[in-house]
């Protein structure tokens, strides 16, 4: 992480029909677009149709890759890049959750650089990407305001961030596309954004500016607790959840994520637990472990919880299941976290393998 106080070059446009209202921003990006999206949701929530309609009205040619899976693999990134190169695209529009948005960023690097291959995503930080437009339809990862792209590497049996920093050029936040989100997706993704706020606030890289944002995000999240629990989420609450996730993205752009994300990757890879949910299982024990008790108490207070136990009970209620891990799994997962230096350096205090084992154990 650099010593910059704050850098976030993405233009953020928000509100109902914001893509349509600000379509002029798109016409500056080129004449050939690649739309990258998941299999179903963007067709159901209207976002894909809206984008196609606007691109047609702007006489921008487009091709569509609509086969991004959750936790996208390097193989998928490769397919998108081959498809985009063959279509001579100038820019990419990612529509969906973090998976299509991250895939757009990684494929954007490969398409822009003719000689780049999948290894280049992890060893050549100087490569730039095609311009990326992000239309998030989950309120969780904050990929619309982060420079990160997380991909699944089946060879190393884990998830990895690409080395390039790819901030979207423009992100359009329209809560309309989130209105029909099923309860489990809403919960999993919103816990991801909560986790970003907490890890960012407690990171060794946190600073005045990222903390100011994190505090606002935690306050917003605190205002959504009851709606999330009862699954009665109106348009205003959806907008608040989307903004919370976008703010959380801005926070981790500066701070990075730390232990819950690092530990959660094994839960996702080996146990099939979705990303946000995996973090959710670990958050209470992480807060219990963290040495900066003053900041931990501030988190609880912004969220409107009186005690850490009350916070844990609330998460338990939302997650609605217990984490089960064998002793061997705990030891293996702890070891891979203990050698994950990129996440460990974001934690401001010393962490031993035994601490990590304890955190997993306390999360059961
Ligand atoms: P996701 O994997 O993009 O999507 C999860 C599921 O939600 C998919 O089945 C998707 O369906 C569905 N979905 C998406 N939008 C929906 C909507 N509006 N209504 C109903 N269903 C909808 O989930 P995600 O949690 O947003 O992203 C997770 C990925 O982001 C992980 O790979 C994680 O590591 C990464 N991540 C990235 C960052 C970053 O900074 N870049 C930060 C944290 C996490 P379809 O497949 O049909 O679209
Ligand atoms: Zn995350």
Explain how this protein is built:
- The chain is an alpha/beta fold.
- The chain has two domains: 11-177, Rossmann fold (3-Layer(aba) Sandwich); 182-363, Up-down Bundle (Dehydroquinate synthase-like, alpha domain), CATH 1.20.1090.10.
- 54% of the residues lie in helices and 12% in strands.
- It has helices at residues 18-21, 24-27, 41-44, 47-57, 74-86, 98-112, 120-123, 183-201, 208-230, 235-255, 259-271, 275-289, 293-303, 308-319, 327-338, 341-344, 353-363; strands at residues 11-14, 32-38, 61-68, 91-96, 132-136, 150-153, 158-161, 170-173.
- The chain has a six-stranded parallel beta sheet, sandwiched between helices.
- The two termini are 32 Å apart.
- The mean pLDDT is 96.
- Bound molecules: NADP nicotinamide-adenine-dinucleotide phosphate and zinc ion.
- NADP nicotinamide-adenine-dinucleotide phosphate binds at residues 38-42, 45, 70-71, 96-99, 102, 137-138, 140-143, 146, 148-150, 159, 177-178, 180-182, 185, 189, 192, 275-276.
Please describe the topology of this protein.
Elements: E1 11-14, H1 18-21, H2 24-27, E2 32-38, H3 41-44, H4 47-57, E3 61-68, H5 74-86, E4 91-96, H6 98-112, H7 120-123, E5 132-136, E6 150-153, E7 158-161, E8 170-173, H8 183-201, H9 208-230, H10 235-255, H11 259-271, H12 275-289, H13 293-303, H14 308-319, H15 327-338, H16 341-344, H17 353-363
Parallel strand pairs: 1-8, 2-3, 2-4, 4-5, 5-8
Antiparallel strand pairs: 6-7
Helix pairs in contact: 5-6, 8-9, 8-10, 8-12, 9-10, 11-12, 11-15, 12-14, 12-17, 15-17
Bound molecules: NADP nicotinamide-adenine-dinucleotide phosphate and zinc ion.
The site of zinc ion has 6 residues, from helix 8.
């Amino acid at each position: 992480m650099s010593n910059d106080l704050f850098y976030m070059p993405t233009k953020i446009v928000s509100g109902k029909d914001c893509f349509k209202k600000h379509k002029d921003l798109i016409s500056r990006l080129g004449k050939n677009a690649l739309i990258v999206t998941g299999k179903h949701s963007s067709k159901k929530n209207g976002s894909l149709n809206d984008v196609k309609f606007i691109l047609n009205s702007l006489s921008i040619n487009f091709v569509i890759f609509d086969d991004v899976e959750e936790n996208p693999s390097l193989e998928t990134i490769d397919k998108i890049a081959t498809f985009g190169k063959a279509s001579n695209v100038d820019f990419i529009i990612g529509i969906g959750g973090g998976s299509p948005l991250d895939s757009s960023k990684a494929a954007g690097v490969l398409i822009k650089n003719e000689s780049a291959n999948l290894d280049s995503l992890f060893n050549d930080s100087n490569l730039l990407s095609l311009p990326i437009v992000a239309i998030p339809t989950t309120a969780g990862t904050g990929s619309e305001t982060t420079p990160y792209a997380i991909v699944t590497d089946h060879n190393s049996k884990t998830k990895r961030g690409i080395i390039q920093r790819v901030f979207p050029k423009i992100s359009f936040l329209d809560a309309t596309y989130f209105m029909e989100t099923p309860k489990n997706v809403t919960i999993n993704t919103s816990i991801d954004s909560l986790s970003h706020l907490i890890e960012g606030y407690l990171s060794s890289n946190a600073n005045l500016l990222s903390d100011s944002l994190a505090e606002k995000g935690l306050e917003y999240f605190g205002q959504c607790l009851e709606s999330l629990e009862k699954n009665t989420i109106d348009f205003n609450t959806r907008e608040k959840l989307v903004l919370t996730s976008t703010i959380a993205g801005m926070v981790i752009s500066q701070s990075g994520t730390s232990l819950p994300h690092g530990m959660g990757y094994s839960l996702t890879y080996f146990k099939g637990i979705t990303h946000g949910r995996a973090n959710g299982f670990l958050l209470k024990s992480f807060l219990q472990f963290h040495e900066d008790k003053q900041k931990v108490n501030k988190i609880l207070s912004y969220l409107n919880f009186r005690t850490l136990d009350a916070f844990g009970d609330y998460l338990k209620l939302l997650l609605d299941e217990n984490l089960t891990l064998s002793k061997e799994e705990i030891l293996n997962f702890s070891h891979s976290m203990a050698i994950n230096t990129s996440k460990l350096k974001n934690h401001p205090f010393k962490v031993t393998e035994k601490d990590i084992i304890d955190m997993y154990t306390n999360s059961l």
